[in-house]
Amino acid sequence: MRRDANPTILFVPGLRDHVEDHWQTHQARAIPGSATVEPLDADRLSRAARVGALDAALKAIPGEVILVAHSAGCLTTVHWALAPTRRIRAGLLVTPADIENPLPAGYPEMADLKVGGWMPIPRRTLPFPTLVVASRNDPLCAFERVAGFADAWGAALHDAGDVGHLNPAAGYGPWPEVTALLHRLDQNAAGG
């Protein structure tokens, strides 16, 4: 397959969808031709609806795609990858949420996520090169759990240090490091 010099970056948000001061929003504005999975109007906790929205976004993109997911968007991505409908060039999965353990106040309850079809978190090698970014102090997932997910997904692991959940509440708005991580991921996907 011919390598596309300019793959489309597709942002896969978490359950809170588009957040104005989130690093994904800043990056989507900064990267020409990038796209973001559309937010859901209904069934916001439905895994099937989230996976369907990701699949619809992918079908609208003609060339190669690099997925950039955050939080539960990482889980949407790995659920989609159980039955992929197209080839993905690479995936950057940033601070996945551990929904198999109780989340902090203000986040969905485990029982609601189970009803929504999110559990268990898939633990199968992903069909595309993947880099997982882990935080040492993420309130939504312990570093060791993220490392275990990365191993199960056949992904490389990047230790981002103490960055919380890499969301506006943790001070990320802009996250300049993501540009270098995307470049590294794309170079690794190309085999060089």
TrEMBL record:
Gene3D superfamilies, A to Z: alpha/beta hydrolase
GO molecular-function terms, A-Z: hydrolase activity
Annotated SUPFAM superfamilies: alpha/beta-Hydrolases (SSF53474)
Protein keywords: Hydrolase
Superkingdom to which the source organism belongs: Bacteria
Record bears the keyword Transmembrane helix: no
InterPro entries: AB_hydrolase_fold, RBBP9/YdeN
One family name in Pfam for this protein: Ser_hydrolase
Protein name, as recorded: Alpha/beta hydrolase
Upper lineage: Bacteria, Pseudomonadati, Pseudomonadota, Alphaproteobacteria, Sphingomonadales
